[in-house]
Amino acid sequence: MLDILAITTPIFLLIGLGYLAMMLRLFSKEQVQGVGIFVMYCALPALVIQALTQNPLEEVFNPQYLLAYGLGSLLVFLGTLAVMLKLQHKPLAAGAIQALGMSASNSGFIGYPIAAMVLGSPAAVFLALNMLVENLLIIPLALILIEMGNQAGNDLGKMLHQTASRLVRNPILIGLMIGVMLAVTGLTLPSPLAKTIDMLANAAGPAALFVIGGTLYGIQVSGMATEVAQIVTGKLVLHPLAVFSIFLLLPETDPLLLSGALLFACSPMISIYPLLGQRCGMQAISAASLMVATLSSFLSISLAIWLISHNGLFAIS
């Protein structure tokens, strides 16, 4: 248990440092957002490029991982959406937001730093794979459904075009495209540029965790307990179980792939969740869910590490 705490405690101490910096007014909201922009537009794309250029391409784009993690996430999204619409009679946009909160992990800001401490260098490869699932499948699907719910009767083609336009400007996907191009062509970056990318990649984990902590400051949970509990339980319990179950159904599951997928799935939802919730009047619920899920993920991630280590899937040094 002490070994597990040695892994998880520094992660949440960094989150707490960001929260404390905001509470003591050492940072303003705008300054924390600035650090977040640095992580999103500089550090994480560099990390993805690093992962794609330092590993053989056939190891990076692992079909088994993409199938299991992608299908598990999609099943949670569609199952949640069906429950929200059919049983709880939620509007389409609200149902899509809740489904998104349960099926899209904060892979870059929390999943990667934790997986890097547990698994080492393969964590960057898993990050690249998760970014494909989240940015090309789950998030676009949610955005399309939210727009359909908010603008019933509008041209579907226009909504698809708007979603595609956002995707091509996504810095993570741009990093993926650059990394794939370099990996396929065999080109190597000049040494100064390669070292710059390495430095940016190394900054991704600590800076991302600090941003999460600063973002959580000031969020209120009162009056939303039922909906918040649903979203948090779905994200930290149902999502990992779905991904884990799909992996078990596949033949000859690689223990390293299973371990990485489980750690990422046990992470809380994406950090932009409250911003997307704002599109259908669910910003407060989304923000409260993000805070509760982030704090609760200390338990879910610790439990995942304990279960995996005691089943011999990987050794925690």
TrEMBL record:
Q: Which domain of life is it from?
A: Bacteria
Please list the GO biological process terms of this entry.
transmembrane transport
Mainly localized where? membrane
> Which residue spans adopt a coiled-coil conformation according to this UniProt entry?
none
Alphabetical UniProt keywords: Cell membrane, Membrane, Transmembrane, Transmembrane helix, Transport
Q: Name one Pfam family in it.
A: Mem_trans
Give a yes or no for keyword Metal-binding in this entry.
no
TM ranges are 6-27, 34-53, 65-85, 92-112, 124-146, 167-187, 199-219, 231-250, 256-276, 288-308
Where in or outside the cell? Answer: Membrane
Its cellular-component GO annotations read: membrane
* Membrane topology listed for this record: Multi-pass membrane protein
PANTHER family per the record? AUXIN EFFLUX CARRIER FAMILY PROTEIN (PTHR36838), SLR1864 PROTEIN (PTHR36838:SF1)
Q: What is this protein called?
A: Permease
Q: Which organism is it from?
A: Chromohalobacter canadensis
**Lineage, opening ranks:** Bacteria, Pseudomonadati, Pseudomonadota, Gammaproteobacteria, Oceanospirillales
